[in-house]
Design a protein that fits this description.
Helix content: under 10%
Number of strands: 24
Number of helices: 1
Shape: globular
Distance between the termini: 46 Å
Order of helices and strands: HEEEEEEEEEEEEEEEEEEEEEEEE
Strand content: 35-45%
Radius of gyration: 18 Å
Amino acid sequence: MRATLTAFAVALLGTAGFGDAATAQDAPCVNDAPNPYHLVNGWAHTPRAWAPTNNVYVDAKDDVWVMDRCDDKGCVNSANSPIWELSSDGKVMKNFGAGLFAFPHTVKPDAKGNIWAIDGDARGGKGDQVFKFSPEGKLLLTLGKAGQAGTGTDVFDRPTGIAFAPNGDIFISEGHAPGFGNSRIMKFDSNGKFIESFGHLGSGDGELKGPHVLAFDSQGRLFVADRSNSRVVIFDQDGKFVAAWKQFGRPSGIFIDRNDVLYVSDSESENAPGKDTNNPGCKRGIRVGSARTGKVDYYIPPPPVSDPKFPPPEGVAADSHGDIYAAAVPARSVYKYVRN
């Protein structure tokens, strides 16, 4: 009991001024919020069909960045490029990165327009690396060692997400399921020099299990999609635990806009005792709410799919108009939702 009260007190202190809902670590998953969005079909006009996509991001210009996995057999030995930049009306502006990736997982531009991309697994002598490209697509920097995983500070073990602090520091998560690896956050300066790491495999406060996506809010707090713990976890930039939220479901994707609207995609929740995806009482879909208070305002159910075995989208992002983009892996689709 004392441990529970202590954890609750830490969350209270860490989120002072953000409302009571921000501290409700045991709040139930919200399934009954209204859905004011509708699906827009055929918005993207790409020269080839999407390969499996799990990541989408919208930059400050409302351009849409997508990373797919080249073709049906993946990126190893593929001539296709996995990094895409599209306009909001679906016109392809850039497509690059051919020959570099084994398992594309995340693409995200920084404040200077440089493009960072994560290769999330080791295959064929490639992978387990993070690449930095110029806005034109020129490779500028590589972190990690090709095809080599480990626990050191110069390697990654199945890296997943990336986010940039207001001062330019770089935060990278690692430990993708099913092995979960280090399940930590690594922090670098803007030049890629290692600073520190925090978090480790576990389910307690400050612990992580398969962190999947990272995002910062306007207060500079780091939000982590702690997917295999079925929660959104919040840290300060020094790695101090602030709070854990379960009301947004089992997060595969997280996006926070300039107004601190929080978008969370849940692609895996199910009532399946004994399985990693077990999260009873929580529906899959996208939840939209507040990064300040933790309140869930909207719930968007999964889009229709051609095969009922296909899970809903993992990646989620939104533009300045509130339009939502969602990337699905087996369905090989990037969906767009607009307000009614």
